[in-house]
Hints:
Layout: H1 8-13, E1 43-53, E2 55-58, E3 62-65, H2 68-71, E4 74-90, E5 116-131, E6 136-150, E7 158-175, E8 178-194, E9 198-204, H3 206-211, E10 219-224, E11 231-232, H4 236-241, E12 250-256, E13 264-282, E14 287-300, E15 310-315, E16 328-336, E17 343-356
Parallel strand pairs: 11-12, 13-17
Antiparallel strand pairs: 1-4, 1-17, 2-3, 4-5, 5-6, 6-7, 7-8, 8-9, 9-10, 12-13, 13-14, 14-15, 15-16, 16-17
Amino acid sequence: MKKVIIALFLAVATLFSGCSCSSLPALSFSNNWSGGQSEEGAVENAVYTLSFNEDFRSSDEYIFDVEDGVKQCIKDIEYTGTYKTSLKVIQQADIDIGSEESDLLIVEPGQPRPSVIEQTTEFDLNAVYTLIDDQKQTFNDKSYTKSYFFKTDASLSPIYSEKTYNCTLVSLSVKNNNLSVSFDNEKYACKFIYNKHSYTIKDYDYDSFVLDPTVQAKAVRTIGYSYRTVVDNTELLFSLRNLSIEKDKTKNVPVADFTYGNYQTLIVKNYLKKDEICNVKINNGLTENLEVPVNCLSFGINASNTGRRQLVFVQNGAVGSLKNNAFIIKYVQPLTTYGSYTHMGALEYTLSEINYNK
């Protein structure tokens, strides 16, 4: 059964179903995020504003509205919050794991030790649901990730990731011949450790892990794959920034994810080019009102019961003081209730602040 949750990372995870374990070609990415320059020394910090849209539309193909079943139970939905990302290129000696855990960090004698990208993300959403009887249900959803992966010249190959997730499920069900809404908590903590021919997933009790990240895992599983053929779920959106894809064309991006373990291949399509209005504060300066040229990408799994395609608007040209570093200007997550699969509008991530040095 598919889950759709009010948060980025499990929403990405719910696209996955089943296993796709055949051999894969090496992935190829461009260094768009550093403006085509060397990635060495690159630093970037972004803030996105979170909001609810009850009737999102992008071309005739993507309409994310609120269906009647939700309207019968929920009168109003209000989301406020932020999603923050931090990226920087660091030396391998500065990361949290060593070669005893990942053979990707073993360097042959006399060879240089390549630098890596460190990424952290913080998702913090305040949600208020006003029910049909005017009662209010309020929740604070949070997620945090930290990951290390190689630069674009090594296919953004993942080395390590960790994630804590504590968010809300919205469910619709029939009780006494009437629709009823309920809210449930979903939380987990996990780590991924990658080697050349396999990756290990460690599953932790959320509450114990938050108190002590060194606590013993409650479950461990190992999945076979080949180096340079997948990206980690935590770096998915970053990888899409560096994917060169022409209008109306598609590319495949295999992604390793906690919910299903085995990697699954996302089909990414550049379905539209347009200008997207953006009010963004750039490098701690004044806020600029810009019409940013973007590639509108959709992504999803070409299989049954895998959810609706999600949308990412990626900058494809410089404007004002904003260099063309393929920034994500907007990310749109279609929302669906758990169980009944009733459409519930969309959660939008809109770029509001960006600081970068390349």
